[in-house]
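Before relying on records like the one below, remember that each one covers exactly one chain. Contacts with other chains, cofactors or solvent are not represented anywhere in the record.
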Amino acid sequence: MSDLTSERAAEPNARVSDIPRVQSVLASTDFSDVANQAIPHAYAAVDDGGTVHLVHVLEAPETPSPLYAHYRPGQVLSADERQKLHADLGARLRALAPAGAAGRGIRTEVHVVDDATVAAGIARTARQLGVDLICVGTHGRSGLFKTLLGSVTEAVLRETRSPVLVVPRRGR
């Protein structure tokens, strides 16, 4: 046995305790296939008995995104309409939890949050919940598309200090 190998073998297994425990993961989705592909990874990353927070961010009514069907551009929702929208989106989030999560003792909590931008909402919610990891899907856009459309994933990386697991679109 080489000196280096014997030295490593003599090290206590205490280094395993350096591996961070993942008790709480935030997975954000806009309900697109790309975003939803990140959700199983969130459940895979969390320890048994942990919590996955499924999050959808509604942009402020002043700047609705025309990319999502549940927004009505130019019309601000009443309090009742907004409450119903939150409830409907919460139910859609809950339906995304994989069936096997309960068998591992993983709790699913759903959050529909309002914020000026999706990235700010994800970062703020992650801070408030004190999650160990953020999990997001990405289209993997670059160049002109990224310049024109922006990148929620890139903005989340800039706005948070939490580790972020970026799940690329399948087929990449």
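The chain has one domain: 21-168.
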